[in-house]
Amino acid sequence: MNGVTVSMRVMSAGDGYKYLLRTVAAGDGNRSLSTPLTRYYNVEGTPPGRWMGSGLPALGTGQITSGDEVSEAQLQLLVGMGRDPVTGAPLGRAYPVYKTIAQRIEERTATLDPHLDPPGRARAIAAIEAEEAERGTRRAVAGFDFTFSIPKSASVLWGVADAGTQSLIAQAHHDAVADMIAFIEREVAAIRIGTTAGDGAVAQVDVRGVIATAYDHYDSRAGDPHLHTHVVISNKVQTVLDGKWRSLDSRPMHAATVALSEMHEAVFADHLTRMLGVEWEARARGRDRNPAWAITGVPEELVAEFSTRARHIDEATDQLIDQYVAEHGRRPSAATIMKLRAQATLSTRPEKTVHSLADLTAAWRKRATAMLGEDATGWARRIAANEQPLLLRADDIPLDIVRNLGESIVATVGEKRSTWRRWNLTAEAARQTMDYRFATTQDREAIVGLVVDAAEAVSLRLTPFELASSPAAFRRMDATSVFRSKNSTIYSSHQLLDAEARLLERSHDKTGPTVSLAIMERITRRPDPEGRVLGEDQAEALVRIAVSGRVLDVLVGPAGAGKTTAMNALRRAWETEHGAGSVVGLAPSAGAAQVLAEDLGIATENTAKWWQTHQTTGATFQPGQLVIVDEASLAGTLSLDRITGLAAKAGAKVLLVGDYAQLQSVDAGGAFGLLVRERGDAPELVDVHRFTHAWEKTASLDLRHGHTDVIDTYDAHDRIHDGATEEMIDSAYTAWRADLLAGKATVLVSDSNESVTALNTRARTDLILDGVVRGPREVDLHDGTRAATGDVVITRRNDRRLRAGRGWVRNGDRWNVLDVRDDGSITLQRHGAKWGATVVVPADYVVEHVELGYAVTSYRAQGITTDTAHVLVDSAMSLENLYVAMTRGRDANIAYVAVDQPDASHDVPHPGDNPAATGRSVLSGVLQHAGAELSAHETTIAEQETWGSIAQLAAEYETIAAAAQHDRWATLIQHSGLTETQAADVLASEAFGPLTAELRRAEANHHNVDALLPKLVRARRLDDADDVAAVLHHRVAMATARPAGSERTRKTPRLIAGLVPEATGTMSDEMRQALAERRDLIEARADAALDRALNEAAPWTAELGPQPTNTRKLATWRRSARVVAAYRDRYQVITEAAIGTQAETIGQKIDAARARAAVAQAQALTNETKTAEQGRRPRTVGAAREPVM
Predict the structure, then answer these.
(1) Which sign does the torsion angle of CA 1079, 1084, 1090, 1096 carry?
(2) Three-state secondary structure along 941-965?
(3) Quick one: pLDDT at residue 3?
(4) Cα dihedral angle (65, 68, 70, 73), rounded to 10 degrees?
(5) Of 55, 170, 604, 687, which one's alpha carbon is 20 to 30 angstroms from that of 986?
(6) Are 676 and 682 in contact (CB under 8 A)?
(7) What single string gives the DSSP state of each residue in 1026-1070?
(8) Are 758 and 872 in contact (CB under 8 A)?
């Protein structure tokens, strides 16, 4: 848990709340003691839950206050049922009940054509089953389970300290949690209201606090000290606008989690320092991870003692050693102990048992005392006894320091991301101010807020400012519009945007060196030295690159498409034209650079080292050189800008080779994808050569593009297995080991560090028992595993001082361990080498930068080719990672899909897990989860499109219109003939909004709603209606389906861009102005969308027919075409058909009908024009009659 002190998981409705009660103590504890932790000190289990949040007064009549105990009945009502825990009354709408997969299949099957023959019916049912399984089962969200943990060093101190000190540390923890819940209420919690704008309701408004339940837990799943609190924030909240109960917006909850974790760690550190005077220090955790903060004086060895996941293995090993001594009368040798430990590793982990805090503390003190060599409680007393600490107020931090911190934060965030939001800056601001200790949480929040403001000021805003004014009712306290979600503005930097612009400019610059067409044709037609002939796609791509003259060119190659063969041919052609040594290679990693060197026989280097050499020696490129940058999607934007700038200056050409669908840069990236997409005609290899089976070639490309129907293909070939995580780890490992024993080159891939460790441990265990890995000495690695002679390991850091044959130790290299020495150093031989290529790696490198190498992550797997690949998949995996992992094997790539999400702190499944999840539904989610970062240029365009779209503007218009006309509709309803009670119920109903929208639509169609509504009220009795508003909504919709008037007298509906009913009547000036501004923007957007479609000859425009030449008819044709363009923009239609796929909502169905009518009108005008032109065409004598069509 080091480094992450807050995590969040969704909690589902139903009986999931029982998860929180599993360890709660049965008794009342010692009520004479003041705090829950001391009161339940000697009782088996954890304290009962307690209420939190400023939304509590709204429950019942205010009986519940913060800190009160939560009963099981109350928890069931609130979390399980969405009801008031005091009165049992519903809090707003009931939780939605979603149909199961089986129910949906049954319903759709019942609607199939009864005349289908048996084979056709079977195919249709199979298709329905596949589609519904892919959709999975939705479950209502009851709340958000935030886990607040204290840093590991603090948990260790708490775990061994005396009861009084324990209580103080727990109090600091509880205070920090309370501060963070208050922070969430102010900065994160919100709900969405108004008309839907494509991805949810359009307005985000604040809430009147949250309602939460908090449950303290003492230990980890392994039984180590791990003080943490589960705070379940109910999904039910009241809005500040009208006090109605609605559901929380989940997006900010997810987006803020990392920032909350960083803030919480700092806030807790402040509280503990104020409480005990302790000091804090940063401890490095490797180059790819942020430092972990720990209490000064708590040794890392003690933290490690209580961080191992394998304590039960140690205990089982001790038991086996005792048995060995009993049987043999002597202690086993080191080599035998290693085998006994391997046997213990295979033993089943015992179920976690519930203990009292007193029992846990006694055990922890015993372990710590043995490790420290002194009494653990006395040691803890010394650590907690300190002088009065220096505490800062917000006023103590000068503004120039704040500005400098803001610049530093943008520089740090900009190294890793092309774009960022306020939450990214907040997380980094909390990290960079962690070494300050503040007198109050308010002081810390003030400084972090000022620093983030400074960071935003020096960032470049990509999100456009609000395009139209918002009335006061739609502005927050800080004057921002509710139509923009809090903290949603996207930023970048001038540095990144300028770098992207220079890269684009160089990709259009055609003054670079070339190879003649004659040489290219000669080279591409000949077999290479190994007899391979280029495919048509390879030859065409290389010719385009060689003769283009582009200073910066790209080559896109899917996995297994023969990039290496193509690059070799290009190298031969380039050297024929420009001489030996005219092709050099670069790659983002040392490993990829070495592979490029071996494949092409050219000088290579990794990009960072090359730049460093250039800066120190001035070495650069030569005129006419071709610089091949392999795995270019992994290269950062600023790095590519520097390299291509020097190449352009020297008169060289740069070729970026990679795949935008594979893994992206860990630095600020997106440049490779930008260059490919901006050109539109980038050279691309399309014929996949790697795979043995023809079907897998096609399937891999579908996987690359995220086509979910490819799941059927892999499933049909038995390439998908699903189950619980531990079951999948076992299945993947078993299959991998069978391939290994069969002599196949095979790889285990997982993106979960826990699964990689589990797989590595399992593989090593079997190899020990097989005698392949042997003692007598072992060495500890940084992730808690060990290595001995015979193990396969991976080095994780470049170190050019450590030479191995002609190479050196690189990040990502795999090695065989030849020997483990007494001093902790190890002798390694490069994996696959028969002789030589050995190196002695020093002990400090081993401890920090060596890992077992049986299982790897997708990043480690990119670039390797094996016979088979066994891939562990979970719901957190991205499309890019899955694609890379599932394209490593020539003969087989098999996915083992985990349908659960294990909780590191608990034995039982989390209630957020979906029990109906299947391998198919998890894979479908992964295929739709693209993790690739967009460039700053592309993000700017996307933001302009989003906020200027008709989808957004129309939703804003309709939401404002509902508020502007609210009083008018309320008056109409109160005088419509309804009883006073009925009218009040209509105004309070959830259907009131849809009813008023229908009235506005009717009025736009020239119906007299003032006369119509009373008439519809009198039409039939409403006494037995469950929801009068819903009934009236239906009656109005039916009565006004067509515009008012007869065919001759019918007026044109008052519709903005032919779709949005215009709001009329009495309203305030600011409401009228806001609506007018949005009306003008919608119409301008519709015109622009149509003009763009016509200029680009978009396929859908052909459906409308050619534009008439008659001026009057052309104006009418354009009005109709504009309706279609507006419809496509509002509903994000991207198909070639004008109207696109089936409409989903009632509102869209109405608009689709209008768009279809517009298409028909445009076609009719076109046909009229054709007929008129044919009538004017002069006939020639003897001309043949045209056939009647």
Answers:
(1) negative
(2) HHHHHHHCCHHHHHHHHHHHHHHHC
(3) 61
(4) -60
(5) 55
(6) yes
(7) S-HHHHHHHHHHHHTSS-SS-TTTPPPP-EETTTEEPP-SS--HH
(8) no
Q: Coil, helix or strand for 118? A: helix
Q: Measured between alpha carbons, how far is 319 from 890 in angstroms, rounded to an integer? A: 45
Find out whether 910 and 892 touch, Cβ atoms under 8 Å. no
Cβ 504 vs Cβ 675: under 8 Å = yes
Distances (CA, A) of 950 to 134, 233, 315, 1070: 31, 35, 65, 21
CB-neighbour burial class of residue 43 (10 A; exposed 0-12, middle 13-18, buried 19+): middle
User: Which two structure tokens, joined as six digits, stand for 936?
Assistant: 């700053």
Distance CA(721)–CA(732), nearest Å, equals: 9
- The sign one gets for the Cα dihedral 758, 763, 766, 771 is negative
Q: At what angle do helices 992-1004 and 1009-1019 cross, to 10 degrees?
A: 130
Query: Residue 596's CB: how many other CB atoms inside 10 A?
Result: 27
The CA–CA distances, whole Å, from 1138 to 532, 1127, 1155 equal 47, 9, 9
* Cα 1048 off chain centre by: 56
| Strand partners of residue 141 | 12
Give the type of residue at 1019. Answer: A
Question: For residue 243, what is the DSSP state?
Answer: -
Residue 242: Cβ-neighbour burial (10 angstroms; 0-12, 13-18, 19+): exposed
For the chain, what percentages of helix, strand and coil (3-state, to nearest 5) are there? Answer: 50, 15, 35
Question: Can you state the angle between helices 671-679 and 637-650, rounded to 10 degrees?
Answer: 60
- Tell me the three state secondary structure of residue 806: coil
* Three-state secondary structure readout of 849-871: HEEECCEECHHHHCCCCEEEEEE
Residue pair 145/12 in contact (Cβ under 8 Å)? The answer is: no
Q: What is the pLDDT of residues 63-100, one digit of tens each?
A: 999 999 999 999 999 999 999 999 999 998 888 887 87
Q: What is the pLDDT of residues 761-771, one digit of tens each?
A: 888 888 888 88
- At 33, the amino acid letter reads L
> Looking at the predicted structure, is the pLDDT value of residue 1047 above 70?
no
Count of beta carbons in the 10 Å neighbourhood of residue 531: 6
Mean of the per-residue pLDDT values for the chain? 88
Q: How far apart are CA 974 and CA 967, in angstroms?
A: 10
DSSP 356: B
State the DSSP H helix or E strand holding residue 269, giving kind and residue range, or none if neither.
helix 257-276
DSSP state at residue 604: E
Rg of the Cα trace of the chain? Answer: 34
pLDDT digits (tens, 9 = 90+) for 1051-1078: 778 899 999 999 988 899 999 999 999 9
61: tokens are 């009549």
DSSP 394: G
Burial of 1040 (0-12, 13-18, 19+ CB in 10 A): buried
Largest CA distance in the chain: 122
pLDDT at residue 1187, as a whole number: 39
Tokens describing residue 887: 């394209």
- pTM of the predicted protein model: 0.86
How many whole angstroms separate alpha carbon 689 and alpha carbon 697?
7
Report DSSP state, residue 1025: -
369 close to 375: Cβ distance less than 8 angstroms: yes
- The answer to whether the beta carbons of residues 254 and 8 sit under 8 Å apart is yes
pLDDT in tens, 849-896: 898 988 888 887 877 888 999 999 998 898 989 999 999 999 999 999
What six digits make up the tokens of 853? 């190498």
Measured CA to CA, the distance from residue 279 to residue 385 in angstroms comes to 11
Q: What separation, in Å, do the N-terminal and C-terminal C-alpha atoms of the chain show?
A: 75
Distance of CA 663 to the CA centre of its chain: 14
Q: CA–CA distance from 508 to each of 180, 224, 314, 647 (Å)?
A: 51, 60, 63, 15
Listed as own residue / partner, the contacts of 1005-1009 with beta carbons closer than 8 Å and 24 or more positions apart are: 1005/1040, 1005/1042, 1005/1043, 1005/1044, 1005/1053, 1005/1061, 1006/1043, 1006/1044, 1006/1045, 1006/1050, 1006/1051, 1006/1053, 1006/1054, 1007/1039, 1007/1040, 1007/1044, 1008/1044, 1009/972, 1009/1036
